[in-house]
Amino acid sequence: MSPRETMAAEYALGLLEGVELLEARGLMANDSDFSQQVGWWEDRFAPLFVELGEDVPPADLWKRIQAAIDAPAPPSEAIILRQRLRIWQGAATLAALAAVVLAFFTFITPHSEVGPISQTAPLVASLDMGKNKPRIGVTVMPDAKEMLVSTAGIVSDGKHQHQLWLVPATGDPRSLGVLTADRENRMAIPPMLSSRLDQGATLAVSVEPMGGSPTGLPTGPVVATAKLEKI
Amino acid sequence: MLNRPPATDSGSEPQSALDAAMARLAQGDRTALRTVYDASAAKLFAICLRILRDRSEAEDALQDVYVNLWRRADRFDASRASAIAWLSSFARNRAIDRLRSGRVLRQSGSIDEAASVADLQPLPDRQAEDAQESARIHHCLDELEDQQREPIRRAFFEGLTYAELATKSGTPLGTMKSRIRRGLTRLKACLES
């Protein structure tokens, strides 16, 4: 098997973690050959499920499903209320304004470094988590010491948090921090990473246990990726 | 632990009814969701339970599966082997996502305890319509060496990653990867033959 065919089998079985998992999820979304191979493996393995037999779920589960469909309420992943989309869109505009104001503020504060670096534009990324779901907006300040991360519209389930990652072209993803739901997170950028938060750098968001990944690498599903762009 | 419901388990009719209901579901037919639920919930619940090993977590996972199924019913690809195969994989993947995103919250003791049930034997009353496909994957797994087959089965049934399989069996990660990759290569050749 080619490395990619092997990865399809590994992904179907759920063997991958970290950067390989990120790569496979990217291929699932963008490479129909790859997703078909994953489907092939899933179908070949599916007969094994018969070994698990059946187990009747509780009678009220159907009602819970109907209720969840009729009135979307937070299930157990970090969830997003569709009806907040509009509020979020308004908030995104505010966040953009806030970013500009903050950038301005950074220019005039005595702590800011004067020089070419502070004259560059902020970098932004919009991490899209799917249709009808809020996006996570990242604005990297021109001095690359701070960033503003908007999680407006995201509802915490009390068990999970989103975590933001820098995904280098090679090597493991590096954590940029754990995000609090539904707010403007103003976060310090780890000094070792500030020079790498450049135009075109790839960011990713994963769902992690409260407090962030226990391993230092993404463990949960990667729900969005985007590249930093100058505005 | 395995409750067998009376009706949904007989021959190929429920399966084709399920395939038909999946097609109606994609058109936004709400009654189709109930049909799909009735025909598949007990199987999918068993899968979620096996991966998550916690009834309450498995119930949440199952709810998540059907709510997602309703919202994104167009994702079912009719070219796949069967609706139940697709649904089963979908449920397994959702349960694994839940397992991984929440695992720090789980009691580590319960994972190890539950690991002792890793080698469930095949049930004798395998369904007739699955028999041929089933025979094939079983035959091909049987062709593998034990040290290839066992981690592949554990990955499938327990949702373990390379790193977790290596740790649990005390095998270096690189060794575990190459064993499984060799196993998967042989498995593919056998399944395609």
TrEMBL record, chain A:
<keyword id="KW-0812">Transmembrane</keyword>
<dbReference type="InterPro" id="IPR018764">
    <property type="entry name" value="RskA_C"/>
</dbReference>
<keyword id="KW-0472">Membrane</keyword>
<dbReference type="GO" id="GO:0006417">
    <property type="term" value="P:regulation of translation"/>
</dbReference>
<dbReference type="GO" id="GO:0016989">
    <property type="term" value="F:sigma factor antagonist activity"/>
</dbReference>
<keyword id="KW-1133">Transmembrane helix</keyword>
<dbReference type="Pfam" id="PF10099">
    <property type="entry name" value="RskA_C"/>
</dbReference>
<feature type="transmembrane region" description="Helical">
    <location>
        <begin position="87"/>
        <end position="108"/>
    </location>
</feature>
<dbReference type="GO" id="GO:0005886">
    <property type="term" value="C:plasma membrane"/>
</dbReference>
<feature type="domain" description="Anti-sigma K factor RskA C-terminal">
    <location>
        <begin position="95"/>
        <end position="222"/>
    </location>
</feature>
<protein>
    <recommendedName>
        <fullName>Anti-sigma K factor RskA C-terminal domain-containing protein</fullName>
    </recommendedName>
</protein>
<dbReference type="InterPro" id="IPR051474">
    <property type="entry name" value="Anti-sigma-K/W_factor"/>
</dbReference>
TrEMBL record, chain B:
<dbReference type="Pfam" id="PF04542">
    <property type="entry name" value="Sigma70_r2"/>
</dbReference>
<dbReference type="InterPro" id="IPR013324">
    <property type="entry name" value="RNA_pol_sigma_r3/r4-like"/>
</dbReference>
<dbReference type="Pfam" id="PF08281">
    <property type="entry name" value="Sigma70_r4_2"/>
</dbReference>
<dbReference type="GO" id="GO:0006352">
    <property type="term" value="P:DNA-templated transcription initiation"/>
</dbReference>
<keyword id="KW-0731">Sigma factor</keyword>
<keyword id="KW-0805">Transcription regulation</keyword>
<dbReference type="InterPro" id="IPR036388">
    <property type="entry name" value="WH-like_DNA-bd_sf"/>
</dbReference>
<dbReference type="InterPro" id="IPR013325">
    <property type="entry name" value="RNA_pol_sigma_r2"/>
</dbReference>
<feature type="domain" description="RNA polymerase sigma-70 region 2">
    <location>
        <begin position="37"/>
        <end position="102"/>
    </location>
</feature>
<feature type="domain" description="RNA polymerase sigma factor 70 region 4 type 2">
    <location>
        <begin position="136"/>
        <end position="187"/>
    </location>
</feature>
<comment type="similarity">
    <text>Belongs to the sigma-70 factor family. ECF subfamily.</text>
</comment>
<dbReference type="InterPro" id="IPR039425">
    <property type="entry name" value="RNA_pol_sigma-70-like"/>
</dbReference>
<dbReference type="InterPro" id="IPR013249">
    <property type="entry name" value="RNA_pol_sigma70_r4_t2"/>
</dbReference>
<dbReference type="InterPro" id="IPR014284">
    <property type="entry name" value="RNA_pol_sigma-70_dom"/>
</dbReference>
<keyword id="KW-0804">Transcription</keyword>
<dbReference type="GO" id="GO:0003677">
    <property type="term" value="F:DNA binding"/>
</dbReference>
<dbReference type="GO" id="GO:0016987">
    <property type="term" value="F:sigma factor activity"/>
</dbReference>
<protein>
    <submittedName>
        <fullName>Sigma-70 family RNA polymerase sigma factor</fullName>
    </submittedName>
</protein>
<dbReference type="InterPro" id="IPR007627">
    <property type="entry name" value="RNA_pol_sigma70_r2"/>
</dbReference>
